[in-house]
Amino acid sequence: MPSPLPNAELVPSLWFPLVKKFYQAHYPSGKPNKADPIWAIKENGAILAVARLKQIGDDQLLTGMVTIPSRRNTGLGLHFLNNLQPILKQKNCYCFALDHLTHFYQRGHFQVINEVDLPKDLRTRFRAYRSQGRNITPMQYFSP
Questions:
Q1: Can you give the pLDDT at residue 1?
Q2: Domains in the chain and their CATH numbers?
Q3: Residue 7: how many CA atoms within 13 Å on its side-chain side?
Q4: C-alpha gyration radius of the chain
Q5: Which helix (H) or strand (E) element contains residue 48?
Q6: Where would I find the N-acetyltransferase domain in this sequence (predicted)?
Q7: Pairing between strand 136-141 and 92-98?
Q8: How far lies 9's CA from each of 6, 51, 105, 112, 140, in Å?
């Protein structure tokens, strides 16, 4: 019987250099910011998955969610999203999912929305990302 998956935890500032190294290794375009709450799943002191919740006005943007390659497609990512549910429902929460990951986020209670339904600050950011050629879909979290 496999061991239970570890739970997500808010990363203390002391771990920031490790998170930065994690992003450099697994998602080089991800730029962690000490000001953003960063959540991680760790096992035996090693980071398995990480995500940031960028606070933008009265809303939050789930961004930079990354799982180590050896643990992808194992249920860890969905477990991570489910662990974050109490945090995701504190404020309106959005994500700009890579097009090929929309189904994954839908399983985690995000729904595809029209970009005009994004709050103004997020809509501006979304359009800027799209103009850079990113294939992303706007999504919003809806509590189950």
A1: 42
A2: 8-141 (3.40.630.30)
A3: 6
A4: 15
A5: strand 46-56
A6: 23-107
A7: antiparallel
A8: 9, 10, 20, 27, 22
